[in-house]
Amino acid sequence: MSRPAGRVLTLLELLQSGGTRTVAELADRLGVEGRTVRRYVDQLIDLDVPVESVRGRYGGYRLGPGYRLPPLMFSDEEAVAVLLGLLAGRRAGLMTAQDTASETAAAKIRRVLPKHVARRLDTLLESLAFTDRPGPFAAPDAGVLLTVADAVRHRRPVSIRYADRDGRRSERTLHAYGIVAHAGHWYVTGADAGIGEERTFRLDRIADARTLPGSFEEPAGPSPAQRVLSGFATAAYRHEVTLRIHATTAQIRAHLPATVATLTEHQPATTENQEADEDRAADEDRADARWLRVELRVERLDWLPAVLAALDRPFAIERPEELRPLVTALANRLTTNAQPG
Length: 341
Fold this sequence. Notes:
There is one protein chain. By secondary structure, the chain is an alpha+beta fold. Helix content is 42%, strand content 22%. The protein has 12 helices and 11 strands. A hairpin with a 2-residue loop joins strand 4 and strand 5 (185-192).
């Protein structure tokens, strides 16, 4: 590469760092005269790089928006950060439907990494582990994702064509409050204008989205992420379970996160059995533990006894009755298995 060509790329890198750069500043950084800087700028413009001229006392040159992405100049650390972001996004399932774009983007950056940086990256990837295996996540369409994001940003209604988990299709007008990434999926939460209630929709089930005229005000309340978590915890399922557990919030949340269960303070009545429960709990933990009411909705009950055993805290079952024999059966199996062979 000739020195002038190298200086043109250096000029591009300087402009990509942001802000307006004066001709004098650029000339000093490149080691050339001002008229040479102008000639380099003309070369970038010929390559369709959107360089804008800023007039005035503090004028100079800056990058503007163009019809296509110009060549990007990354530092070693920036390139590694982008590659790790793409890797984490693929592992979490948080890519758009055009997943080949992430593969080709990563490949382009990987090919041009300096050898010493590539070796360090390989070392990192060899030592990197994930706590769960990637699943067959359905990713949203990139156009849908960007359209909904724009509606969120400008508080504009958006019309969506949606298919629920049973395949039923509908068209809705949504006042979108925010986009949330959770457990390998993208979600949008907001008010369904047709029914006047808050709803959460999976973005990969939206076939089409278009913004509509008008605007709306988001009501005060929880953040979009909190709305999504609350929606999962209160969704309609086959069984409604209510428990009383003597533990700290952190101890319960380690086994029953906010997406699964809601927690509220419990003030037990002073019956003889409950007084005994309180005395036993107080003996076991006099720190921050207290009686909490735990409510959750589930399709199956068979996994709950093991969770309660893992909690290893005093608990009482309020409902449903079908849970009691399952807990008893697990206790009997544990007792049997603990006996000497």
